[in-house]
Specification:
Layout: E1 2-8, E2 11-16, E3 26-35, H1 38-46, E4 48-49, E5 52-53, E6 58-59, E7 63-71, E8 83-86, E9 89-91, E10 111-113, E11 130-134, E12 138-140, H2 147-150, H3 153-166, E13 173-177, H4 181-192, E14 197-202, H5 205-213, E15 218-221, E16 232-237, H6 245-251, E17 252-260, H7 274-278, E18 282-285, H8 292-301, E19 310-315, H9 319-327, E20 333-337
Parallel strand pairs: 13-14, 13-16, 14-15, 16-17, 17-18, 19-20
Antiparallel strand pairs: 1-2, 1-6, 3-7, 3-11, 3-20, 4-5, 7-8, 8-12, 9-10
Length: 340
């Protein structure tokens, strides 16, 4: 079968690899759609994503959906043809989390994630024609949700988790700084969860247009010199740019909450953080998600429209062009069609 394999910085290939066969407790998915994420771009552009460094060729992709093609022994309730997405996280080891974080499986100390080089050997992703998946990671798509939408359930789950970390947003104003794919999905998630006014800020006018289509009530074009608003009680920082933190902290109301979902660098970087103390801001991190992928599927079934997020679609054979497009200004979510 064909697969999108990164071999090193700037080196992505369409490789032929053996067709997989499901073992006991496993499901064979015929993949249909995959969404390109920032981690995919990191492995392709730099050979690394955060602290995970590429040591061997890796099949990319963790935002995927397809249909059940076969099941292994002991798997029930997933008939052939069932459309499904995947929870990409597999916990490694029988490690009990402390009571203070019980149930927060995203904070488990050892997690194998689709399309990740964090472990050696690496964990291949789902940008391939087929992928074998443990049955308990398969999430059937609800009626009315197609596999293209299903491929967006994973990043929507990230956004829903960030909104959850902000607390109850019903009837409140939320500022989202950074409107790449995750930031735009945070806009949609906040509106879905009942925020009455969502302000989206970015340097890119095309990204702001996507955020507006995803439900932003107001946009702030930082690239044109517009300032961030002031005294916003709930703020989500989705850019991951350390240089933005000073202005974002200043925009956060005294005693307000700032959720950091944009992935900050793992190396030293200058940032202005004084207002964190003097304004007594609660600054919380948001990492991946727990089971919000199920919430994402319900939201999609309830009519949350993620279609404006998708700006480009490419065939699997054109993955290199798809990655270049996803890395270039003016794009939002780029999808790969994983089979004809």
């Amino acid at each position: 079968m064909k697969a999108v394999v990164v071999h090193g910085p700037g080196d992505v290939r369409i490789d032929r690899i053996p067709d997989p066969t499901p073992g006991p407790g496993e499901v064979l998915l015929a993949m249909e759609w995959g969404g390109i994420c920032g981690s995919d771009l990191g492995y392709w552009a730099r050979g690394a994503s955060g602290t995970a460094v590429l040591r061997h060729p890796l099949v990319l992709g963790h935002e995927v959906a397809g249909r059940v093609a076969a099941v292994g022994a002991g798997v029930t309730g997933l008939p052939e043809g069932t459309p499904a997405t995947v929870h990409p996280a597999l916990l490694v080891g029988e490690i009990a989390l402390p009571d203070r974080i019980a149930g927060r499986t995203n904070l488990h100390p050892h997690v194998r994630y689709f399309g990740s080089a964090a472990f050696d050997p690496h964990t291949d992703g789902g940008f391939s024609e087929y992928r074998v998946v443990p049955a308990d990671q398969v999430r059937p798509l609800p009626h009315g949700v197609d596999t293209e939408q299903g491929a967006l359930a994973e990043p929507l789950a990230v956004a829903l988790h960030a909104v959850h970390r902000a607390g109850d947003v019903r009837g409140r104003t939320v500022l989202v700084n950074g409107t790449g794919p995750i930031g735009a999905l945070v806009v949609a998630a906040a509106k879905h969860r009942g925020a009455t006014h969502v302000i989206a800020a970015d340097l890119s006018a095309p990204s702001l247009a996507v955020a507006a289509a995803m439900g932003a009530d107001e946009t702030v074009d930082l690239g044109a010199g517009a300032p961030l608003p002031s005294d916003v009680e709930l703020v989500v920082e989705a850019s991951g740019a350390p240089a933005a933190l000073g202005a974002v902290l200043r925009a956060t109301a005294r005693g307000g909450t700032l959720v950091q979902v944009g992935n900050l660098p793992g190396s030293p970087a200058p940032a202005q953080l004084g207002d964190l103390v003097s304004r007594e801001i609660t600054w919380v991190g948001s990492y991946r998600f727990v089971e919000e992928i199920s919430d994402a599927l319900r939201a999609l079934q309830d009519g949350l429209d993620v279609a404006p997020l998708v700006t480009h679609r490419f065939d699997l054979d054109d993955a290199a062009e798809a990655l270049r497009t996803a890395a270039a200004p003016g794009s939002s979510k780029v999808l790969l069609r994983l089979r004809p």
